[in-house]
Each structure stands twice: as C-alpha cells, then as structure tokens.
Design brief:
The complex is a heterodimer of chains A (about 350) and B (about 300). With about 350 residues, chain A is of the alpha+beta class. In chain A, about 25% of the residues lie in helices and about 30% in strands. Chain A is built from 10 helices and 17 strands. With about 300 residues, chain B is mainly alpha-helical. The chains are: A alpha+beta (about 350), B mainly alpha (about 300). The interface between A and B is medium-sized, with 30 and 20 residues.
Chain lengths: ~350, ~300
Amino acid sequence: MIINVRNICKSFGPQRVLDGIFFDLEQGQFLTLLGPSGCGKTTLLRILAGLEAADAGQIYFDGHDTSDWHLKERRVGFVFQHYALFRHMTVAENISFGLRMRPRSERPQAVTIRTKVDELLELIQLPHVRDRYPHQLSGGQRQRVALARALAIEPRVLLLDEPFGALDTKVRRELRGWLRDLQQKLGITCVMVTHDQEEAIELSDRIILMNNGRIEQQGSPSELFEKPASSFALRFLGTAQEFSAFELRHNATQESFVRPHDIKIHRDDSASAGLPARVNRISIRGASAWLDLETSPTGGVPQLVTAELHRDAFQGLGLKVGDRVRWQAERVYTFNKVASSDEFSTAPYHPGNASSRL
Amino acid sequence: MNTKAAAGSWSPPLAQTHVGSSRQVKPGAGSRYLLITLALSFFSLLFVLPLLSIFAEALGKGWVLYLQALKDGETLAALRLTLTICIIAVPLNTLFGLAAAWAICKFSFRGKRLLISLIDLPLSVSPVVAGLIFVLLFGSHGWLGPWFIDHGMKIIFSVPGIALATIFISFPLVAREIIPLMETQGKDEEEAALILGASGFKTFWHVTLPNIRWALLHGVILCTARVLGEFGAVSVVSGHIRGVTNTLPLQVEILYNEYQFTAAYALASLFALTSLFTLVLKFIFKRRTQATARSVA
C-alpha cells in the first residue's frame, strides 16, 4: 500500500509532540522512524494505526483520506513492544482473534481459520506452540506470535513499535534478519519505530530521522550516513555502536566534526603533517583497532579524540600506549551552529569540506 | 536448611529474596513463640470466641427453637427484603464499578483524579451520615422528596431508599478491587484487539473481562457481604416498619431489644455463616487474582 502523510501535527496539552510531518511511502517499502526517546516517533506510528488522532493534517492510504476511518477499516497490523498477546488465550486463539472477531457475515469458516492459523504458525516457524499460552513462550517466540497475529488479518501495512526492544541482543539480531526476509517474501509495506540505529540501518529501505517532533532528515541508510544534513543526524548515525565526534574548530557560527574511521595516523617521526598527539589507550575489536588520542590543538586545551584503524594498518604502525603520533582528518563535517536546541539546523551539508585537511 | 526448604516450595526468584532477607536480624525462638501466642490469643479472643458464642446462643435452646426463630413471618419478610436489596444493589454496583474502573484505567480525561477520590468517598463517610444524606434529599421535607411524593413515588421509609443507601455505601468495593489490576495490565491488549478489528463490546467481553474476572468476583463477594450486613445507613432511611422495611440486620436489633435472644442469635448465626462462606470465596478469588496479575505477558 502507498501511504502519504501530510502535515501531521499533534500536541498533548501544551506539549507539541509532532510538528508538520510530511512523508510518502511506497508499496513494499520498509520505513524506519528513528530518533531518540521523546522525539514523537511512537506517537506518529500510533496516529498511522489510528490509535491516536492527529490535531491537524491527513494520512492517505492508497490515496484515500483516513481521517474519519475507524480502526477496523484501516486494517493495519500492529506489533507492540511488549507483545500485548492475550494472556488467557492460546497461541492459536491469539492468532485467529482478528478473524474470529469479524461480524458473522464476514467471518471465515472455522476450517478456513484453522488452516490460516496453521499457515501462519508455519511462517513464524513455531508450529509446535499452537496450544501453549503466552507465558509459556520465550520473548522471541512471543514476538513472532504477535507478528503472526498481526498478519492474520492480511493487513495493508505492518506497523512495528520497537519490536525488538524487550529482547536480548542475540535474539534481537536473529529476529531482525528473520523479519527482513519475511517482509521481502510477503512484499508488505512496513513502518517500524526504533531508537537503535543499527536496527534501522539493517532493516530499512528508508529512514526518517526524527528529533523534537520534526523530521530531521530522510533518505536511505547510506544517504543518512554519508550525507548527514545536520550535526544531530551525524551524531545519531554512526558506523560503530559508540560514535565519537570531535569538534575540531571552535568558531562562533560553525561546528565541525570528524568520524573515528576518517582519521589517519602516522608515527610522529615519519611525517610532519597533522596534529601531534599521544596514544592513551588501545582496544582491538574485531577487524578494527580503536585508539584514544590526547591531542592539543595549537594553543588549545588538550582534548581526546578516538580513531578507528583497520587492524592491519594498526599492526603495520606497531603502536603502543604512550607513543607520540600525528593525525589528520580525511573528512570533516561542518555545520552552522543552531541558536537553541529545539530550533534545529537547516544547515546544508558542505561537500567542499570533505577535502579540507587539518 | 530453612532457606533450602523455602526455596524448594517456591519459584527461584523468591528463593533469592529469601537469601537476601536471611541477613536481616531474626527474632530468637523464644520471642517468636511469644509473638505467635500473643497473636493467636488475640485472634481467639476477638474473633473465634464471639463467633462460637453466636452459635452457642442460637442453638442453646435446641434446633426446634432455632428453626422456629428463622421461620417467623417478620423474619422471613426481612430476609426477603435483604435479598431483594442484594439483587438490586450488587449488579448495579458491579456495573458502576466496571464502568468507573474502565474509565479510569483506559482513558485520560479532565477530572480523573476527582473521580478517583469520589469513588472512595463512601468509605470515609459514616454510614449514618450517608443515610441522612438520602433523607435530606428524598425525605418529605427534602430537596427532591416532595416532587417524588407528588408523583406517587415513596423513596424514604421504603424499598427504593434502602436500595439507594445500600448502593451508596457499597459502591467502592467492586471498583477498588479491579482498578489496581486493570492499571497493572495497561491497555495494550485492548488496543491490540481493536486494531485486529474487534468492536468495543467484543474487546471488553473477550479481552478485558477474562483478564479481570477473578478480581471482579472478589469485588462482587465483598460488595455482597457489605450489602447483606449494612446497618447504619439502612437504619436511617428504612423507618423500621416491621415486615415491610426491616432488613435482616435491623430485625436482629429489634429482636435483641425485645429480649428475644435465641431468635436474635439465630439470625446472627446466618450472618456468621455468610461471612465464613465469603471468607473462603474471598481467599480463592484473591489467589486467582494474584495469579493473573503475575502472568502478565
């Protein structure tokens, strides 16, 4: 289904939660609403589902304005963070709920419902849990059952609210890959809410990055990563779990950042280019070596900067803690400073700066 | 070794709590027995002894007199009235309680805090005052009384008044039982049901009600017990017309004041039996409620 969202606004009392949200979603796309907690992403998802009403603006499903539609007419699938399975019903009863609750004239026959439940159990690879109760399942199983329940009504769009939020890291990874495969197999349009950038990057065709009730930037994961439109986008999406940014130049109107993997390091004796620094800490994770450098910009206070090196490159340098090095930034991101935190920047990306060196 | 026994009979998380608490200062065996003895003797003196005395007094002059006392015309009328009030008040309060709990737990609206404190009001008002409120409202010199009397409806000193006062007194019991449970359960399941296309009523019937059924039954039991035994408020509005507006508790008082001790105690024994029965049901439902609360998915 195609979804068009036009100028959605929502306030809770004096608190403005969503402020003029526009976006379009194509059939079969996987869209992620990404942002820190309190940025309005969950409210936006609930408005899409029809669980909340927008104060202003329209949402179109395949060109039809859904403003006056009842929840039933929307036919959306919704997966809750805490599963929201019906605790007094078995897995099969949970999955068939949406079909059984239809008015008699539209309700499929018992046999049809049974077949459907079996198919869905097969799809989520849990045919053996059919007669169990939710409390007898693991978190990952519960979430898969919740997904089957949402799919049973053949929804036009699948909405997922932090679907992996309550699961541990390992299960979360497995389930993520599985969800991606399933979504492509079914070709269903998906909107997911998350604050986890790794999840967003792995699953989405498109990411909408939100901050303070507004869209900060939207685009494909690589676009957001390669061409961040603001310092917020840059800080929020990094390669590593820990994204460390460093303000290189202090200037009244501009701020500059460098990403850890954009830093090149030489031994102090090998080259004269770059800023001098001392290696404070070395940690090797996977294929990368992470170095904490203590550097003193000309005349400034000593500052810490983190560099990410390929392991081979690191070994080639033969560095140890305490060594003196020189470093350069391959690429620097510069943005205009914003006056206040909620008035975020419309600062353009400066591709020219990509070549600037320190 | 104590720890191990406790761990065996309980689930693992509780076993851990036990390990933690074993560091606390424990009273020695001597003071433990002293405390238990003290508690038990208090309990026997204040609860068991009076209970036994009711049955002793009631049956002291034999079964024949006991049954005769129960078969008295006025007593039967009082019993009938009490049951009638029960049939009116309990379903209504169940309905009100459900509606109030639903409104409080599933919606946010202006005046919600006020509603919550209003629900508790009957518990803090003396039953006699509660009765007087209704006399003031519906009595022949009250605010609304004359209008009702002109339209041929007698409320005070009649069944409607007794029903109203009883409903007022027992109103909070159902609501207070289900609100905490509904609040811990949240509204995710209801939202899930609505999104899956269930109507409001079907959502209530298939999702909400099964989740709160034991707490609801527990509340209904408490409410019934209160309705059956209400004295103060009913005493004010009933007018004590024998065989007409006397409920069972009022009848007990009348019999007692007339020195018909056997009859008074015979009726009192009915109450005692009801409370014992209530206690057992209460125990069962409370356990089931806790089990549902624990199984939060």
